[in-house]
Structures
1.
Amino acid sequence: MWKYISLKYTSVYYLPRRDPDDVADTGATLELVRDFCADKVAEVRCAVIYQKPRSLVDCEYVWRHTDRWINFPWSVLPPVVAREPRVVDA
């Protein structure tokens, strides 16, 4: 799936990527995006909820630094509303 990022002072660029990461774990994805954007904008800054010590990128905005495993509610809890199984295209 293609996601877009909007870069201030430039056009919109498209990157092949799933959903954005909340954690700078290895930092490989952030490094890829940062390097891609670096010559297209005046300044690149990274913001994450959590940053791990082994991250290749030292983000400018971090809510928490941790080396622990993170369980987000949207990845470990069931959906709030159960959906009926259905055939979308038959």
2.
Amino acid sequence: MTMLSSNQVDFICSSELLRRIDLPLARELAVRMETVELGDGELVLRPGYLDDNLYIVLSGRLTVSRRNPRGETGLLFDVEAGEGVGSMGVRSHHLASVTIAAAGGTQLAVVPRHVFEHQTVAEVE
């Protein structure tokens, strides 16, 4: 993983996920994120695992899918550049019930739970 460039920080601050919060807080979160490169089909998350990171797509696309009771996998939605996704584990520590995978080459910004919680608690105090 590598740190984000200043252009990536600006992009993330304007993303759907962070633009609803105070700009200084969004910028502080963004500068603490790291990037990860994924190849086509690489998994971000799979059912039964706990992942308490938030992910923002910098480039490329993610697919979110779920297996039904008959064992068939169905696409729930795509996550495009500027959009964010994370497991319910970010808030509740529940195991994932979906699969999140890269659809082609994808670059993500990763914000670990401890960074998000630390920064939002610090803002409240």
3.
Amino acid sequence: MNILELIGLNAEQLSMLSSLLSIISILGSVAFAVFRFIIQPFIIKSPYLGLWYGYNSSKDKRVATISREVWSIHRKWLSWDGHLIVVARSSVNPQLKYIGELVEDKDANHVLINFTRRGSHEKFAFRINRTAESTPPNPLLGFWVGRDHDQQMVAGMVLVDRTPHTDEEIRAIWDANLAEKTTDYLFRLNGEYMLG
């Protein structure tokens, strides 16, 4: 007695059953992919998606400045874990483009973004406050760490908002929220430490 006789199917019926199971498997995979990549992004919204204005303290030729960018935050295409991509373009020089990945650090109540400049090895890390609610506060405040225009390691203030701000408004928001005041909103290591 062979296996086909035990199951009660002949070879033709077994072949049809195998084909039917293959079709069901393929349809299930397609249905999962359609849900995961097409439907789910519209169901699960992130409060960070969309257009933002980013401002960060900087120095150019030893003069304190405020760098301005327009941030576009969107879902990473075909992402299994819902990562968000941030594209930041300089308002002064639109060819200057940074791309980063936004990750929520819910334990610390922060948003982390690691930016890399397109066409360069220049990198910046951002840590921005967020609230525990499902929508981010307006504006978002935090710090960036990287190199400034003078190529020195530096940390500075960040303001990210849905609406544009003047330099005076940005400085007023930073002043109202900084624990320790600085004149240029930048924090550097002592030059002697840098040489050591």
4.
Amino acid sequence: MSSNTTTQSGMSTRTKSILGVGGAAAIAALVFGGAGTGADFTASDRGDVTVSTGDLTLTLANGDLDYPDLAPGLSKTDTFTVTNTGSVASEGEFEFELDSASVSGLTEAQAANLTVKVGDNAAVPVTQVLGATFPLGELAPDQSKNVDVTFALNSAAGNEWQNKSATGKGVVTLRQG
């Protein structure tokens, strides 16, 4: 048998005990996360995020090539140096921008007696260099490469070659590799 004593507030001691235990359980649930929130401890911090692009630049040393007094059966070599001064690896290429009229008065067969060899590429008739590109290979950042350019006049070239000249530009391009 249980004893049920009534207090001044009109609640029995047993009722007060039940409410007291229930209230304590509710407070404990809130404090210790048992109220269904599923909360855990967390921490966070922020760091800087930086995105930057590399650059592709080059320097050209001895870029003015000169081949004076070429005669049948002779070849002359001149060398330029290209340096990748950028921060990105690249593939180099060389291209002639020749004035096609500079060998005027020659037939294509006669003009084919003048050949050019760029770097490790095969020699080709000068008639085939306009618009052609010659690969120079890979250049890592800060890497330099010496490139030989050789012009040769075939020994079969005749008098039609006297006092002829070819002028233009040599263009070196680096492309991201």
